[in-house]
């Protein structure tokens, strides 16, 4: 099996606190990988290492079967924490800033707006967008450079049920376009409906990693794994 990205015994510590410990992640090419875990489990820290936002304390990141380098960021799109938007600019203006930065053609702006269904926002400033529209604009920015790997950290935070449904269908369409997706969440039902593979992280460690089975009770599995990890989860 070919992996888009994997890690080998990845660790991240801040002074005496271990945030990630010996994580060996395996993300198959053209799949949706759901990274599950309670709040504070270390999901965001792991994703920040994969996107070059922070450096590992030790361990390796392998991208397309080679040791990860900062040049690989040209093929990686991400939405971690808040969408990186200028609220005083329109959707198109937000994307224009990035096309200039990445030296991309303007035609790419309309392409990504169509993908995330934001073509009709006109002169409306991004600051006036709903939470769902802001999230979709954040994904449009992440898609602008035609990434091969898309990393989304809790992308449905603050979305209403319609927004979650729209985003779910959008994410499910990406592997057919040659985009591998890692999506982190603490909402089991959200990941259960879209993921091909599941990883469960608790107390900074990866305790479970498998292909999704149709007959599996994800909630039961999750609670068993988290309990084994010694995490109190309510």
From TrEMBL:
TM stretches of this protein: none
Keywords assigned: ATP-binding, Nucleotide-binding, Transport
InterPro entries reported in the protein's UniProt record: AAA+_ATPase (IPR003593), ABC_Gallidermin_ATP-bd (IPR022501), ABC_transporter-like_ATP-bd (IPR003439), P-loop_NTPase (IPR027417)
CDD domains: ABC_BcrA_bacitracin_resist
Keyword Transport included in the entry's annotation: yes
GO molecular function, a single term: ATP binding
Residues covered by the ABC transporter domain: 5-228
Family, as annotated: Belongs to the ABC transporter superfamily.
PANTHER family: ABC TRANSPORTER, ATP-BINDING PROTEIN
Name recorded for this polypeptide: Lantibiotic protection ABC transporter ATP-binding subunit
């Amino acid at each position: 099996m070919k992996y888009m990205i994997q890690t080998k015994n990845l660790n991240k510590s801040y002074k005496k606190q271990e945030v990630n410990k010996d994580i060996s992640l395996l993300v198959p090419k053209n799949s949706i990988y759901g990274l599950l875990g309670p709040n504070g489990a270390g999901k965001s820290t792991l994703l920040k290492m994969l996107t070059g936002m922070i450096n590992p304390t030790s361990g390796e990141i392998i991208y397309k079967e080679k040791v990860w380098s900062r040049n690989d960021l040209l093929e990686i799109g991400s939405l971690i924490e808040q969408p990186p938007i200028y609220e005083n600019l329109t959707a198109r203006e937000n994307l224009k800033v990035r096309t200039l930065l990445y030296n991309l053609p303007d035609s790419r702006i309309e392409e990504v707006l169509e993908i995330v269904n934001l073509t009709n926002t006109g002169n409306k400033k991004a600051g006036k967008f709903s939470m769902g529209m802001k999230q979709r604009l954040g994904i449009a920015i992440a898609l602008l450079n035609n990434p091969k790997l898309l990393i989304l950290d809790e992308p449905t935070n603050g979305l209403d049920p319609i927004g979650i449904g729209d985003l779910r269908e959008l994410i499910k369409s990406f592997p057919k376009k040659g985009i591998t997706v890692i999506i982190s969440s603490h909402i089991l039902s959200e990941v259960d409906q879209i993921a091909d593979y599941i990883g469960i992280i608790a107390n900074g460690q990866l305790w479970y990693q498998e292909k999704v089975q149709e007959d599996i009770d994800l909630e039961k599995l999750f609670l068993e794994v988290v309990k084994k990890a010694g995490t109190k989860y309510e």
